[in-house]
Amino acid sequence: MAQVIANSGHDDMIAHPKYGNILASSSYDGKVLIWREQSSQWQKVADFALHSASVNIVSWSPHESGCLLACASSDGSVSVLEFMEGSWKHQVFPAHGQGVNAVSWAPAVAPGSLVSSKPELGAVRSRTIKKLPVLLILFRIFSREQNTYTPTLTLSGHTGWVRDVAWAPTILQKSYIASASQDKTVRIWTSDPGHPNQWKSTVLNFEAVLWRVSWSLSGNVLAVSGGDNKVSLWKENLKGEWDCVKWIEE
Question: What is the pTM of this model?
Fold first, then answer.
């Protein structure tokens, strides 16, 4: 049975990956709302007005990192909400002067690690990115150091607005980040554990502006959507090249 949250006024909604009955929403009003399902009804439990412009997207962190929610705003800042010991705390920090379109959390498990009953053992990713959680904001990577978020790396290459980014949830030997841009390209960035601050990119060219990128749960298939109402699926072959394996059209 479908349920509708009436009069929420918000466009973007996303449930928590571990506590599915908790929902976050954001909209052009600059607010972030937290909802909880109680007695088969969705009730608003928290209301945050931390931004002076629209909140474009919200993203829960991997549950191993705690109950953390990143919120990207057109005012150029990012807020991170954290539920701890029965109350919500927040941090707001500047990210991009022209506005933030997308946020993506790094996987909770370091590249090359196997999924285990103690995923926190893989939380130390490198000497530079010392602690999870790690956020990718457009192309500025922030790490959490002493309860504050500081930029550790900026990746560049696109010639137009970056509309979306997605950090692959992979446990393979490399880290993967996909970015979709107004310049009609997707860049797939890769880094290995031995050189965590060195990212190489592969460019995929399209005929339309691109809006969203999303990885499969295993992190080996990338979905790309664009302004031409088409979705394409991509996989890396044994040569390290990316092949389109499927086109989906309306």
Answer: 0.79
